[in-house]
Specification:
The complex is a heterodimer. By secondary structure, chain A is mainly alpha-helical. Chain A contains 14 helices and no strands. Chain B has one domain: MetI-like (MetI-like fold), CATH 1.10.3720.10. Chain B is 72% helix and 0% strand. Chain B has 18 helices and no strands. In chain B, α6 crosses α11 and α14 runs antiparallel to α18. The longest helix of chain B has 28 residues. The chains are: A mainly alpha, B mainly alpha.
Amino acid sequence: MRKRNRITAFDVLNWLFLALVALACIIPFITVIGTSLVSQEEWSRRSAFVLFPEKIDFSAYRVLLGNSQIVFRGLLNSVERVLIGTACNLLVTITYAYVISRKRLPGRIFLTYVLFFTMIFNGGLIPTYILVDSLRLTNSFWALVLPTLLNPWWLLIMRNFFAAIPEEFEEAAVIDGAKPTMILVQLILPMSLASVATIGLFYAVHHWNEWFAAFIYINDGQKLPLQVILRSILIQGLMTESDAVVDIRTMPPSQSIKNALIVITTLPILMVYPFVQRYFVKGVMVGGIKG
Amino acid sequence: MTAVKSMGFFHALKKYRAYYLLALPGLLYLLIFRYVPMAGLVIAFKDISPFSGIQGILTQPFVGFRWFQKFFHSYYFWNILGNTIGIRLQWILFGFPVPIILALSLNEVMSGGYKRVIQTVSYIPYFFSSVVVAGLVMTILTTEGGLVNNILRLLGREPVMFLASPKYFRSILVVTYIWQGAGWGSIVYLAAITGIDPQLYESAGLDGAGRFQKAVHITVPCIASIIVLLLILNIGNLLEAGFEIIFLLYSEPVYKVADVIDTYVYRSGLIGMQYSFATAVGLFKSIVAMILLILADFTAKRLDQPGLF
């Protein structure tokens, strides 16, 4: 046996340490799944924290997805936001990133600085809120899309992807008389599908998880995304500003209903996560510490 | 470039108009949603409220630095500034080393499969929304059957309302931040470790260095520059205390230790409707944050690092 393959006490301790880290990362979520599947009877009998329920009971999910229009509505709103929001984000990010990645384009320095300055200074919450309000976007779906139409950090990551493509490809196309839009669509994009997918996933996760914009801009309970509904139900009892959950309020949400909603909100992320994980990691690596 | 300069602005505009048209949506977005709010900062120097109508932004007279003075002289100034910086420093102190340790530990795992599983699992919390994370924290800490209070009960102790306790609130916050970000944060260090020349380890092995010694004397020095850079970046973000999680978890009993600049801007501006005052507080934060970031970048470059920008 070669020396480097020998398993030492150091290895065992290291494995144990990492196993504990991994457990610490998922145990909270497993208890949430456990609690979401507990029946009312078992909950009051054990009156304790439940990791694995004795009997699996789906009634919390039935209440949330069957009886409660608001959760189903929220789910649809969130899906709509992810699809339309991400498409808009990508369109604007790709075009701008492509233009500032052209090394010999006059004005590209100016366009880069216009973008760059927004990374170190911003108007802040109140002026942005007043702007959205003055544009009559309050209570509209577009209040969730337009104010964050592009993320400067992710745009710069994409710019770096585009800039890494050798210029000879484009020069040949220009000589053949291709227009910039055609070059972007037919030449650059097919060569950077992985990076476009990466940035698209960043945007999609952002739209699925984001709640504060919806919380301050949307008053109509019918238009709220799932995260805001989850927040109202979680906080209920601590605060009383949740007018969005009228039909659930008539029946006091037990721990399992709250936990079932956490599961419903997180499940889409967890389902796609194993497949897209490597893209995320790649995005971070390429963006380096600046992403 | 000289050829370009002599070409003239309008000529370039015409020749490259297809490119400029492509950049137009992004440019319009930046101007409307990023630069117009910057111009809107002028309300920090006027007296605007939703009741007087926001058209007052143009017509109202300037009131100078009235709102800044009000803020600097109020009880809240030192309280929220102390809380913001205090939470961030606590976060750096306890949280900054964690991803480094995690990366070093992962680097020592020989089995590729085990390493991948641990990495995959440790990145998961990063993808949870802040609402879900806050929900997990509440579930674990609740007095109605939460994990921690059940352990306390088994030990014969009284249940504790952790989230309403000024004694525990900040520690809960910092642990939550570390829990959510440590796995993801280790990626950058792992990437840096991958770039280390294997010959360094081999020659150290010939000199009789053990695994632990190699980690301390080769791996850590080799990633020192990225450690320093991230530390500087962290200090540049001194005024970011993690608005969303605080906002979701805090309540009046813990305002004294948990109220930060961002939560105060939200409450005074959108709840209290003091648009001008809240904008002044936010502007104070933006300016200090910008100065900190520029200083951080300057420091990084003085240390021969690539810098932040």
